[in-house]
Amino acid sequence: MAKTILIVDDEELVVDIAKRKFGNEGFLTIGVHDGESALKVIKEGPVDLIILDVEMPHMNGYSFLNERKKIPGADKAPVIMLTAYGSMEPIFRRNGVVEYMIKPVRFQELLDKVNKVLSASEPSLDVINA
Questions:
Q1: How many angstroms separate the CA atoms of 65 and 99, rounded?
Q2: What is the DSSP annotation of 45-92?
Q3: Domain that includes residue 123, residue range
Q4: Sheet holding 28-32, edge to edge
Q5: What is the DSSP letter of 96?
């Protein structure tokens, strides 16, 4: 059964490209442009992994993570955070992020990270400087 990836980024082009590329790799993809929309998606049903941008209008990545904790079972999906800022590891650890990548992100490296997280029983926080 194909794994479902929720892609949350305010840049429409980023979401569109990621959806297409992950779809070509056999994943089911859902793309949204803010944290509020992402919360609606996870309330409707579980996803296997979330790729989440930090900086977004209306509800940023951190606010999304805090609100997600209020939804029973929603925190089971691992999160790969995308950020333009380095040195964010302590903040990510406190918020349950298992991996993060620094923008700009290369798709192959993100795909490798996604496969690693989905195949791991206990993912650990790691970083790729893309």
A1: 14
A2: S--SEEEEES--SSS-HHHHHHHHTTSTTGGGS-EEEEES-SS-HHHH
A3: 4-129
A4: 28-32, 4-8, 49-53, 79-83, 99-102, 127-129
A5: T
| pTM for the full predicted model | 0.89
CA trace torsion 130, 115, 24, 18 (10° rounding): -40
* Other C-beta atoms lying within 10 Å of the C-beta of residue 13: 8
Number of domains in the chain: 1
pLDDT one-digit tens code per residue, 30-58: 999 999 999 999 999 899 999 999 999 88
Q: Which residue has the tokens 């970083």?
A: 127
- Residue 101 · residue 130 · CB < 8 Å: yes
Instruction: Look up the CATH number of the domain holding residue 51.
Output: 3.40.50.2300
Cis omega (within 30 of 0) for bond into 78: no
